[in-house]
Design goal:
The structure is a single chain. Helix content is 40%, strand content 19%. It has 392 residues and is an alpha/beta fold. The longest helix is centred in the middle third of the chain and has 33 residues. The mean pLDDT is 96.
């Protein structure tokens, strides 16, 4: 293991090398472009030894990965925003075919209006496609989570594709340190992929994905649901093994910070976790019992962990960098749903903001937590959601 200085996008390309990915298919879109660009360069230099396929659209990129994965190859791609939306049909296909593809989605606003900065609407809109979803907060976390995702996706108890989300520009083009692992080191953790089910092989022809009549279709979908749910338990095992081998641990599906005695916990996804920790430290110094919970895994949603945390706190200040339009913050509503059948049901205040790359500072996080803290003290939940920083 050696420490390197690199942007998140370049580190993602290095993770592809470390994981011995065999096929990468990609089409450029800002701010994801430098991921495949760097992989192509590494391919030309002989460092990335897999196949790099240049396609004419994101739709084709995912279907090329589907074709590769169907033959038993380890496959990867990267995209953003409208590119992810163009993949929609293929995303459903990949999950329904139980193909362990890994996708690095660099979160960007969906157009119009045109905005190339971070909003989580692109990945939020795909949370019901069957893809496991991670959100990362640092270059180091992105690099290692991509490697872990192949191990998770290829486990026969899961066999589902994984989307690793990283914030556009805030992470994608920001240079920071990360700890690089040579492929030979990763081999101890991630052996070559051997599909436990069918593969497309001209020497042994099979048919897959043809007509399924009503009496069996529900069962196929139930298997997708079960495979996705299994990811929570399997990922716990994956992280334990990774920590033992490489000393890296990022907190599981929910990374909690100073939550043990907290009355109010701030939740967020992605890069905001760094600002949130600083805000929590300052509020602690001011005498407030507050904590931070970074939701790393959004699908499958860690219901039991949310309930366990909810049993100890009085309120959640849940911040979403995107919206379920007409219904509020997606993660806030997932937290509410998780707590519905619990005896102790804390306040869940929903905040939506930081969209289009708008900065959310330490002071902003403090204001949000204090607003929730005051509402808790008064017993007044207030509006269903607050669009934080909304200009008149």
């Amino acid at each position: 293991m050696k420490t390197e200085l690199m942007s998140a996008n370049y580190a993602a390309a290095r993770a592809v090398v470390s994981a011995r990915v065999e096929v990468v298919a990609a089409y450029p879109i800002t701010p994801a472009t430098t991921v495949p660009e760097q992989i192509a360069l590494l391919n030309e230099q002989g460092i990335f030894k897999g196949q790099f396929i240049r396609v004419e659209s994101e739709h084709s990129a995912m279907f090329a990965c589907i074709g590769a994965s169907s033959t038993g190859a380890r496959a990867f791609t990267a995209t953003s925003s409208n590119g992810l939306l163009l993949m929609d049909e293929a995303l459903h296909w990949a999950s329904a075919a139980r193909l362990p593809i890994v996708l690095n989605n660099i979160n960007r606003s969906v157009s119009p209006s045109w905005n190339i900065h971070v909003t989580h609407d692109d990945s939020y809109s795909k949370r019901d496609t069957g893809w496991i979803q991670f959100y990362v907060s640092s270059v180091d976390e992105l690099y290692h989570t991509i490697i872990q995702s192949f191990k998770l996706a290829e486990d026969e108890r899961v066999l589902m594709p994984v989307m690793v989300n990283s914030d556009g520009f805030v992470l994608s083009h920001t240079v920071s340190t990360y700890d690089y692992l040579e492929p030979e080191e990763v081999d101890k953790f991630l052996p070559p992929y051997k599909p436990p089910h069918w593969v497309m092989d001209p020497e042994n022809p099979v048919s897959h994905g043809n007509i399924v009549f009503p009496e069996h279709f529900l069962e196929f979908r139930y298997q997708i649901h079960e495979g996705t749910k299994n990811a929570l338990k399997v990922y716990e095992e994956v992280e334990k093994e990774y920590k033992k081998l490489f000393g890296k641990y990022f907190g599981g599906p929910i990374d909690c910070y100073k939550c043990d005695d907290a009355e109010v916990v701030f939740t967020s996804q992605g890069s905001m976790a760094a600002e949130a920790k600083d805000a929590i430290d300052e509020l602690r110094e001011e005498g407030y019992k507050v904590g931070n919970a970074k939701i790393r895994m959004m699908r499958p949603f860690p219901v039991d962990l949310v309930r366990k945390l909810g049993s100890k706190v009085k309120a959640f200040a849940s911040f979403d960098r995107g919206a379920s339009y007409g219904f509020g913050g997606p993660v806030a509503n997932d937290i509410r749903a998780s707590l519905y059948h619990t005896k102790h049901r804390p306040f869940v205040k929903s905040y939506i903001g930081g969209m289009g790359g708008r900065d959310v500072t330490v002071s902003d996080v403090k204001n949000i937590v204090l607003d929730t803290y005051n509402a808790m003290e008064k017993g007044e939940l207030g509006p269903e959601e607050t669009w934080y920083g909304l200009k008149e």
